[in-house]
Amino acid sequence: MVVSHDITLPTEEELTVQEVNVSSSVLRSAAFHLGKYCEFANDEFMLCRTENNGDPRKCLKEGKEVTRCSLEFFQKMKKVCRQQFESYAECVDKSSCNFQFKPCRKSQGVYDQCMLDNMGLERPHWGYFSKAKIHDTKRPKPPPPEIQVYPDATPALPDDYPRHPNKYGGYYAHQ
Amino acid sequence: MATAARKQDGPPPGGYKPLDFSRVPARSVIGAKSLIAGYLAMSGAAFYLYFQNYKKIHRDDVEVRSSMMAITPLLMAEHDREYLKQLRRNRDEEAKLMANVKGWETGKYKGEPIFKTLPPDTLVKPIPLEYFAHGTMDNYQDWDNILLWQ
């Protein structure tokens, strides 16, 4: 494998946190409220991932925050809206083969009302998470990659070296 | 014995009727103008209904896509942690397996790093067959088939 011992990998303990052990239908049904509840953590993590060119080691702290926030959301929701959510998730699970929301508008309305009343979370617009967003963060941007300097590079001409226009014109029409 | 009188078959008295060459147009139900107008009206109504339906389907598609994007960070965070755990397991496994081979360095080719020009401590993700090198073929095929089904 290309990963040698010179490359730092986090240890097993650093990577072990309590994960969100729920199935796809639950995640899909809770997606809108979950995304709204953990919006800052999610945006922070995705921005970190993009800024570090997809290096998973650099964004572990942000990723743990995402998981912690999601876990907190599910624990809170379980206390207040468990029954409404379970009927909605079951509907999403069993009404279609690919977790469509369309057949489940009635139970969705009940669930949304419960979330609004008890957790103050409103269901975002249906295209909310497909929109481009501006994320404001305190985390400093990682520095750009260093420009490599080679000691044996060919020396360039000085900037004030006399330059003449081409005698017979250039390759392109505008020259 | 009397023979029956024979009669020559010929034209009727007064000759045949003249042939009718006159044009017989088809019975017209609807005229050209109303036909075109009807076509346009029906197409217009159909396009209107199609557009209404298109908007509805597009809305549902975007909603499903939005829900996927909302849970992507959660899935990706968990995936990252599990991936790094597995990389460490693979590295330890290779070190253990090749412990008795003289001159073998884990993750290097004859003591030289695979990627020379990269800055130090750059994680290059191994190709899938290397990633699954210490697992069974079933593990690899599970992953591979799921990737192809997507």
UniProtKB/TrEMBL annotation, chain A:
Keyword check for Mitochondrion: yes
Alphabetically ordered keywords of this record: Disulfide bond, Electron transport, Membrane, Mitochondrion, Mitochondrion inner membrane, Repeat, Respiratory chain, Transport
Keyword Mitochondrion: yes
Record region (Disordered): 135-175
Subcellular location: Mitochondrion inner membrane
InterPro entries, alphabetized: NDUFA8
Family named by the database record: Belongs to the complex I NDUFA8 subunit family.
Function: Accessory subunit of the mitochondrial membrane respiratory chain NADH dehydrogenase (Complex I), that is believed not to be involved in catalysis. Complex I functions in the transfer of electrons from NADH to the respiratory chain. The immediate electron acceptor for the enzyme is believed to be ubiquinone.
Name of the protein: NADH dehydrogenase [ubiquinone] 1 alpha subcomplex subunit 8
From TrEMBL, chain B:
Subcellular location: Mitochondrion inner membrane
Pfam families in UniProt: GRIM-19
Name of the protein: NADH dehydrogenase [ubiquinone] 1 alpha subcomplex subunit 13
Family: Belongs to the complex I NDUFA13 subunit family.
Keywords: Electron transport, Membrane, Mitochondrion, Mitochondrion inner membrane, Respiratory chain, Transmembrane, Transmembrane helix, Transport
Main localization (coarse): mitochondrion
Record function comment: Accessory subunit of the mitochondrial membrane respiratory chain NADH dehydrogenase (Complex I), that is believed not to be involved in catalysis. Complex I functions in the transfer of electrons from NADH to the respiratory chain. The immediate electron acceptor for the enzyme is believed to be ubiquinone. Involved in the interferon/all-trans-retinoic acid (IFN/RA) induced cell death. This apoptotic activity is inhibited by interaction with viral IRF1. Prevents the transactivation of STAT3 target genes. Complex I functions in the transfer of electrons from NADH to the respiratory chain. Accessory subunit of the mitochondrial membrane respiratory chain NADH dehydrogenase (Complex I), that is believed not to be involved in catalysis.
SUBUNIT field: Complex I is composed of 45 different subunits. Interacts with CARD15, but not with CARD4. Interacts with STAT3, but not with STAT1, STAT2 and STAT5A. Interacts with OLFM4.
This protein's record includes keyword Membrane: yes
Spans through the membrane: 30-51
